[in-house]
Amino acid sequence: MSARDTSRIVSVGGDVTEILYELGLGDNVVAIDTTSVFPPQIPSEKKSVGYMRALSSEGVLAVRPTLILATDKAGPPEVVAALKASSTPFITIDGPDTPEGVAEKVKQVAAIVGKEEAGETLAQRIRTEFEAAADARKTIAKPIKALFLLSVQSGRALAGGRNTAADAMLALAGAENVVNSFDGYKPLSGEAALALAPDAIIVMKAAPGHRTAEASGPIATEIAAITGLANTPAVKDGRIIEFDGSLMLQFGPRAPQAAHDLMHILYPDLVPTRRIN
């Protein structure tokens, strides 16, 4: 399916936006949602239509789009239905949080905007980069037990369970997600975390970049304040990692780099057989 007019695109979803920019359509994007933070200059350059799960039809249509491309996570449902009923083409981009799922999303977008050749080139690059990460992953003798926390605030921790982007990325980085008793993102008590005994805790970071949390910093302090969680091996050994949330969770073109970066934070002595550029 190819859209006729791509002159004014509203892009909803950080993965969709990154794909459009990789395909050379950045100048055609007139508005983005708040999860679209890469390339880093775009939040200040483009109009915002708000959070992808809390869109308003008036806000989206006010920028006079000729095409709306949106992640399958866009909402609320009644707004999506209203946008689909409007005269502006509204197309959903979806794919599983897997290496091939990312490549397929690229090909979907490319077909819609008439950039099939560039899309195939990008999809193949992504596959190759994931293969490089897989080669490095094969050298891991014993997977690290990891806990992903979407947020830590006021004594509450929201953990990533099965069938989440966090769970998928941990696996791609060669780690074992210790939370396997529930799906999605749910509160996790300190006592439950202690029983899971993670070797490392990865906390979503809103800003770009990754780092080991400072022992006296706000994230480490919040975690240490939660009874039980403070006594896990990860906290005792200072293995609290703040990781770029948009890079880790969106499964766009940078997903192979996320797997590579996280793997080498967890396994600093690991040398990849092929470097991801």
From TrEMBL:
The organism of origin for this protein: Hyphomicrobium nitrativorans NL23
Domain of life (superkingdom): Bacteria
Pfam families in the cross-refs: Peripla_BP_2
PANTHER family: HEMIN-BINDING PERIPLASMIC PROTEIN HMUT, VITAMIN B12-BINDING PROTEIN
Descriptive protein name: ABC transporter substrate-binding protein
Annotated Fe/B12 periplasmic-binding domain residues: 8-270
